[in-house]
């Protein structure tokens, strides 16, 4: 029975593709692909990235992805090792990038307190991604805004009518209208959302950021195909982890921003 590496190498050579060509097409480093073909999977990355790269390479070579991943799981992998994060400022986003490259090529400014990577929970095959809100938050915000305007207008008209009724009756004491000067409290703002935009196939995980800087609950996890959009809640500080940062953009209020990193990395949004 052929090993994983033998199947990958055989499929690549049958197509007449070099390691360099495969790396350019999949956006995965050539030395990682060479390690996979040599049945070496300890490339100093967390399990989610190793599986994501294996999935992407097998898909590119048109091999049975589930079979490759099942054989990889049967090998038994160890716990992922924490990585040293770094921080860079991009536009209005405070982006904290934990690079998967051992040479640290993407670090822009050292962070005072390192934030170790947290192991992601395993996701079973065939599971659907996290569902978004049942009602569009933007629609709720618009309805709330127009409802507040309508209520203020009704109170203003009622106050004006009260003044005219008082001025038309000389025996009745005149009282100024005060309802319009005390509008009701504004409705709570709708929950913020961002949209994940896939420029190419990319595996994305969005998690909450705990008060101590660690990763919390998963808000969204799934694979986005080319040109696919995914709207997810933005309840506060979050981490966005992607298997290929160059294939991902973040859209907020109609404006798109690059992820701020390349390769398998993680960004922070506050």
Largest sheet: 4 strands, antiparallel
Order of adjacent strands in the largest pleated sheet = 7-4-9-10
H/I helix tally: 6
Mean pLDDT: 75
Name its key features:
alpha+beta, 11 strands, four-stranded antiparallel β-sheet, single chain, 270 residues
Description:
This protein has 270 residues and is of the alpha+beta class. The chain has 3 domains: 72 residues, lambda repressor-like DNA-binding domains (434 Repressor (Amino-terminal Domain)), CATH 1.10.260; 111 residues, no CATH class; 50 residues. It contains 6 helices and 11 strands. Strand 5 and strand 6 form a beta hairpin. About 27% of the residues have low confidence.
What's this, in brief?
With 270 residues, this protein is an alpha+beta fold.
What's the structural blueprint in terms of helices and strands?
Blueprint: H1 4-14, H2 19-26, H3 30-37, H4 47-60, H5 65-75, E1 86-90, E2 93-97, E3 109-110, H6 137-168, E4 193-198, E5 202-209, E6 215-224, E7 229-233, E8 238-242, E9 248-252, E10 255-258, E11 265-269
Antiparallel strand pairs: 1-2, 1-3, 4-7, 4-9, 5-6, 5-8, 8-11, 9-10
Helix pairs in contact: 2-3, 4-5
